[in-house]
Each structure stands twice: as structure tokens, then as C-alpha cells.
Predict the 3D structure of the following.
Amino acid sequence: MPKKYHLHAKATPLDLDFIFKFKIVRGENCINCGRCTKVCIYEAHKRRKNDPRKMADPNTVVCRNCFRCIQECPRGALEKSLSKEFLNSGGAYWKPDMLISLWKQAEDGKVPVTGAGYRGRFTGPGFDSMWTDMSEIVRPTRDGIHGREYISTGVELGRKLNHLVFDANGRLQSKVFDTIDIPLPIIFDIPAENLSANVKTALIEAAAEISTCIVMPAANIGPDLAKYSANIIPYITLKEIDQYQAVLGKARLVAIEYDAAMLGDLPRIQAKLKKAGKALTIIRVPAVKEVETIVSKLAHNGAEIIHVVGDYRGTEVGGAAGSNPRLLKDIIRAVHLRLVDERIRDEVTLMISGGVAMAEHVPKAMLCGADLTAIDLPLLVAIGARLYENPEKLLVLPEGLDKIPVPIVRQRIVNLMVAWHSQLLEVMGAMGIREARRLRGETGRAIFFEEIDNDTFGKLFKKGEAARV
Ligand code: SF4
Ligand code: SF4
């Protein structure tokens, strides 16, 4: 049995103001009796340091929403309300609750649990409009996720053979391609350009610690990062191949921006890349309208790994204003099925990014047909970045982030991945799937809202006008 892949979480609070769902307010009718200081085990209520006769403002940061202080205050002086900051953050896709969940996972690496029961909607945009079939709850649940049964979350990247050819003497004739194994179906995607040096270092170190990789512009990879070359994926354009030969020569994987020239000339381009070193090539293709055709042609031309890059809200990119863009989950399904129909799906690795906001989006993307996912925004939310969707995408990095020591930033990113890994194990265990690669394209193990909505109400309404529940 192979050694278990295990990640280590460590409580790592970050002393930066993040958004909080509720705000506790102490009313003027407080009589400073101090009862709330005794009932709150999280010490959200304290007396003022300079005048202990009076209560200080409640510390919302440590509040865990148990409501005990509110129930026990003899004057009904405490009030909890949804904070305006919370309501204004995120947007329709990156819901404020998601941002808080990522922040908390980065704090302790634990799977998020809500004790008060779930009272929200059971469907949402993108990956949230599908559910995984967890009807085969088996051993991992009984034994815990690190129980007796081994569940592999590892995936293999690279070109694979459709079949093997042997000669009359049983000797292998086929040339087997090089592949790369990573223990988690997640890589870190190109981080925002304006990240401080400590954050960049922490992202690279975190990628190395969990044995995954991070995509970075080749221009940002200096000799000081040579020791991380197994974990850094240089990102280049077609024109930059000659310029970054030294960096490419050390890498295991190289990401290259899609160029229409690749449709006719991919073998020559790949040969040029292989002259620099042995790195496998990832072609980054934007999730445009005709992406299935592009991916199909690249796969037939010998592409090793194709990365379909969607919008940050998990939709098609490059559509006309006002058009109804396709959802990435539907794009992945279409790309996957096109390759299956053309009998070439097993030969190429398909990676996706865009809208992967929560741990469960990883297995969902794989069920739709991806081999693995790439993430960027969750990593930044984990270290305090605030995301706003309206009126347009805005990512605000917290003040003082550049002064936080690298080990703290790194551990928060590792913690986030610990939580996501644990959730992936839980989902796979509950689905009775022992190997992550077997999730790929298993749409029969998923339930799609649009499909059951149509099955249930489609006959009552005209096509395309099924009711929303
Ligand atoms: S329990 Fe109520 S009245 Fe007493 S100190 Fe706390 S808020 Fe004030
Ligand atoms: S709601 Fe609970 S955790 Fe929050 S301040 Fe009151 S007693 Fe403390």
C-alpha cells in the first residue's frame, strides 16, 4: 500500500480585519453588569481597560454566533445583525458566505461545519447547480477520512497512450510518454501581479509543501527560485520560447498561452520546447465559444495537457456584452464528450480553472470531465483578500499583508488545502470512489439541477420555461 498523502494543518490566525457575517452591538440600556463576560467562552465581551466599570465594545472577530450572550443579557441590550460589509462583499457567484468559509478554513484547516442546520438555497450558479451522489457512504465515514481504506487523490498529468503495441515476441513497441504525478488534483494558478514578495514566496513554498505546482510568468522566475523548479510552472507566450530557455530547461511543466498557430504547427512548437528541456507542456486555452473545436484540434495534434481557462465566475469568456455565457461546468462536459466521441479523451490531460471557489467544486469539475483544476482567488481570500463582483471585479488585498512573515502566509495556504483535501476525501468516500482519476466524467454520479428541473416541470411549461423552485 502506498504511503498515505497527509497534510499538516496548524492554527494560524491572521491579525487582519476580515469581513464578519454578524455584528454585535451593545445598546445604551446596558447596565454593565458583566454577565455577558461570563457566558461568552470566546471572550467577545470584556470590560474597558481604562475604566473597568464600563463594558468595552464587543469583539465581533472572535464571536462564534452561539447567541448565548443575547439570551442571557438581563436587559436585552445586545443585538446581532448582518453586517453591511458582509452583505456588500462578493457577489452573486462569490457569495459572502463562501469568502468567510475560505478565510476560516485557512485559519485552522478544518472542514467547515454549520451547527444550526442549513437554511439557504439548495442550488446556485455554476458548480452549485449540481450535487454529488453520496449514496454509497462506506468505510471512510465509518473510520474517519484517514481510516483503513486508502483513497488516492493523486492525478497523472501528460499524454497517454490509447493502447499498447507489442511485437511478435511480446516486446513493447509503443513509445510510452513521460507523465508527472501530483498528489492532489489542484495546482495554483498565476497569482495577481501586484502581490508582495512575501506572499509570492509563501505561495511557492506552500505549493512545494503540499507537492503541487504553481504557474508563474517566466519573467518572474529568478535564479533565487531554482530550488523550487520542480514546483514552479513557467508561463510563456509562443514568442518567448527562445528568451526563457534557461528557465524552461529546469522546469517539469511549462504553461504556454494558446496561439492559433498551434492548430497547424503544434508538433514543431513542442519539439522547440523539448529542446530546452524535458518539461511537459500545458496549453492555456481561454474558454471561448469555440473552445471544444480548439481543444479537439490540439488533442489530435499531440497536445499533452490542455488548460481551459474560464472567467473568474465560472463562465465562458469573450462573449458579446449582454449575451448569456455558457457555464464552465457545461463547457467542461461539452469538451470532455467531444474528446470521448473522437476516441481521444484518454490521451490528453484536461485541466480547468475559473469559478473554482469551494472545495466541492474540485470533484464537481472532475465529474464534469476535468482531470484536475487550477485555483487562484481562493488562495488570496485565504490570506485576507476581499473580492467584490459589482460593478466589476475588484480584488482588495489587506493593508499590512506585505509585513506578515512568510511562514504565517504559507501555513494559511497549506491550511486551506488541508481543508479542501479532507473534503475531497469525504466526497470520494461517500461516493465509494477510491481514486480521484475515476471521478473524471462520471456524470452518472452527479445530479444536475437544470436536468431534474426540466424532468419535473418541463412538461408543465413550454420548453425553456421550466419553473424555478
Ligand atoms: S449582560 Fe447585558 S447588561 Fe450586562 S454587561 Fe452585558 S450587555 Fe450589559
Ligand atoms: S453570540 Fe456567543 S460567541 Fe458571540 S459574543 Fe455572544 S456569547 Fe460570545
